[in-house]
Amino acid sequence: MSQLDEHSVKVGSYSQALEQAAAVDFSAIQQYNIINHAGVDRLSRPVVVFNACNLPSSKQIDMNLLLQYIIVALDKVVESDYVIVYLHAGLNSDNRPGIGWVREVYKVFDRKYKKNLKALYIVHPSVWIKVIMGLVRPFISSKFAQKLLYMSSLDQLSQYLHVDQMDVPEFVRAYDKRANKDKPAALSSSVSTASVVPGRHSEHQQFGVALAELVSDNQPIPLVPRLATAYIRQHGLDVEGIFRRSASAQTIRVVKEKFNKGEQVTFEEYLDVHIPAVLLKTFLRELPEPIVTFELFDSIMHILDLPAEEKVEATRQLFQTQLPKANYVVLEYLMRFLHEVLLHAETNLMTASNLAIVFAPNLVWSSTHAASLVAMGKINTFVHLLISNVDGVFGSSSDGAGVQQSSSAAPADA
Q: Could you give the CA distance from residue 38 to residue 321 in angstroms, rounded to a whole number?
């Protein structure tokens, strides 16, 4: 009998599983670090990582409990477009889930999991996993099957997302090194500019550049967020799911290149409000240091443990005393803009919670480790607080910069 059998529950429909999970203690599951959050991919979609090597023996874990934990952990993440990375190395006959459980997962998962999943990267696939995927193929939709991508190495995976932001287990790194020791490194035209070293980029570079290099006393808001917010304000405030949907990867690459070359960018020519929405999130995530700086990460975690009535004032004091001026001005600009988006929630369905989920990974992250799902939940809560209490944190709009108006077309070196 499993050590956790006394906690086992019968998993029925998705809504039933979610309701039942509200009363379940998942500490026995969380300790294994089976699931974690790895920021966003190169199209600013949230990345969820499953570590097969951290799965305990099936004799030590209740698989129904694990399924419920997955549902609770991902329920909010999957409200918008997202991707999954499944690190297969380390799965063996002792900790391998049965095919019946895999089918149950697919059957129980709500439609939003399948609809909003844009890619499932299976890293280091074995013959077993390919056989399993072949066996379950008749039970899954053709659209879902097209989202499956096999990756033979972490280097190949890096073409699609930021592997350096993933908390990859040492077992997986060692396996990857052994399995690919004689293979050349993969090359990709989609490599992010996030690795650009400050001071060694072109004069027009906008992505992957330190914030201080993109602002001045005369123009305290960088070009990309200035143009993106202006266009969205004019065309996207009432668009359902704004900031939750992807855009053409090819178009995103083209527009980024135009920005980085100093060419004029006019969003009107693309007729897709999701392009500036994705680029705004991408710009923020590719900053060498987040807007809410690394130094403030631990303080933010502390603030979230304070009584509710103290959090806003503590945040205000933290930002006023420890956030660099350039960061403060840009963060205020963004939060006032997101509050403006929030005021249209009746039509765009972007509540403060939904906005926090999609923006939190692009505003706050640690310099030392990938965010666990628990930590990511706290970061979401913090960004929710900022959006909902913008005047309390930054003062009334008449006291600060507010949301500046701007033309949606300008040369990229303006």
A: 29
Q: Which residues contact 234 (CB under 8 A, 6 or more apart)?
A: 408
- Confidence bin at 404 (pLDDT 50/70/90): very low
User: φ, ψ for residue 166 (rounded to 5)?
Assistant: -90, 140
Nearest partner of 33 among 164, 173, 170, 175, judged by Cα:
170
CA distance 337 to 406: 13
What would the mean pLDDT of 42-59 be, rounded to a whole number? 88
pLDDT tens by residue, 247-279 = 998 999 999 999 999 999 999 999 999 999 999
pLDDT at position 31 is: 86
What CATH architecture applies to the domain 196-410? Orthogonal Bundle (1.10)
**Is beta strand 148-151 parallel, antiparallel or unpaired with respect to 409-410?**
unpaired
Confirm or reject CATH 1.10.530.10 for domain 5-179, answering yes or no: no
Residues of the chain with CATH 1.10.555.10: 196-410
Is residue 252 within 8 A of residue 275, CB to CB? The reply is: yes
- State the pTM of this model: 0.74
What Å distances lie between residue 237 and 133, 234, 338, 390, CA to CA?
A: 41, 7, 10, 18
Instruction: Compute CA 175 distance to the chain's CA centroid, rounded to the nearest angstrom.
Output: 26
Beta carbons within 10 angstroms of residue 95's beta carbon: 17
Give the chain's end-to-end CA distance (angstroms, integer): 67
CA dist 355 and 347 (Å) reads 14
Alpha helices by DSSP H, 286-324:
297-303, 308-322
Q: How does pLDDT run across 189-227, given as a tens digit for each residue?
A: 334 433 444 444 678 899 999 999 999 999 999 999 999
Q: Look at residue 408 in the predicted model and tell me its pLDDT.
A: 41
